[in-house]
Amino acid sequence: MVKLFSVLAALSVALSVSAQHNSSSRIPPQWLKKLPVASNDSFSYETSYAVGATLEIARQKCLTEILERSGMTSGMIVMSEHSSEETVSQNWENGKLTEEVDITSTTEISTKNSGFKLFVKEISEYWTRNGNGDYCLTKLYAVSKINVTPVFDNIRLTAHYGAAGAWRSAIVPGWGQFHKGANIKGGLILGGAAVFAGGIVLCESSRHDRLRKISQTHDINLIHRYSAAASAFSTARNLFIGGLAAIYLYGIIDAAAAPGALRVITGKSGKVNYSLAPAASLDGSIGIAAKITF
User: pLDDT tens digits for 169-212?
Assistant: First the structure.
């Protein structure tokens, strides 16, 4: 059982190292297949795809495609990066990005020209390497309408699924891995569980067949032979049971603890401020008062 855990863990690491060599993450993110849904109509989630010799070239191409898709031929682009929440103002003129204008800590900045304004928030990215070594990049953005100050969602990126993956694997081995996007690992766990279950059924059937034959003969040599075979099948059955239990437990633990495909969790925008302070109640007791402002 311990050996089986070691083999599965080693295989998982090997798959992870191999995939990360040619991609930004071991498992493609969920938003590649299904975009998040914006909480209001002041912006939309969009993806852009580009190929470049370097990541920076590919990123610039992705942004250019988003700007061209928006229909804005000139104006100011207010860029906001999700990881740092910094904003960068840039000019977009005749299909080209020009000088950087400003950097602030919020998306609320004043434009320095009278042209159009577009807010673009970088959410996430995923890249792979093709046979030529070029970067095939897909970026996820939140894009406002032209000249509309957006109310962007509060966004959290996570690769953890917790109980959502664990209870699925508890019902069907590998289901939790499929739910997290780890399809290869899920297939291995499901296939391994099926092999062990099949081995249990085969060994138990063979053991019963040998016991049936013992009851139908009085030949001492055959009885010894069938008895030895029944004992061997019983041992093999127990080994298959142990293997099935091991892969079943591994599937649950892995589904709960191992990271899966990166997913975007959205919430309505707006800061939540809270404060705690000592307070006295009407009966004279001292406690803590909490104030929450939405």
Answer: 999 999 999 999 999 999 999 999 999 999 999 999 999 999 99
Q: What is the 3-state secondary structure (H, E, C) of the chain?
A: CHHHHHHHHHHHHHHHHHHHHCECCCCCCHHHCCCCCCCCCCEEEEEEEEEECCHHHHHHHHHHHHHHHHCCCEEEEEEEECCCCCEEEEEEECCEEEEEEEEECCCCCCCCCCCEEEEEEEEEEEEEECCCCCEEEEEEEEEECCCCCCCCCEEEEECCCCHHHHHHHHHCCCHHHHHHCCHHHHHHHHHHHHHHHHHHHHHHHHHHHHHHHHHCCCCHHHHHHHHHHHHHHHHHHHHHHHHHHHHHHHHHHHHHHCCCCCEEEEECCCCCEEEEEEEECCCCCEEEEEEEEC
Model pTM?
0.65
Q: Are 136 and 129 in contact (CB under 8 A)?
A: yes
- What per-residue confidence (pLDDT) applies to 103? 36
65 CB-side CA count, 13 A:
17
Residues 293/272, Cβ–Cβ less than 8 Å: yes
Tell me which residue has tokens 């390497």.
129
Q: Tokens at residue 200, please?
A: 């249990």
Express as a percent the part of the chain with pLDDT over 90.
58
Which pLDDT value is given to residue 96?
A: 65
Q: How many CB atoms lie within 10 A of CB 66?
A: 20
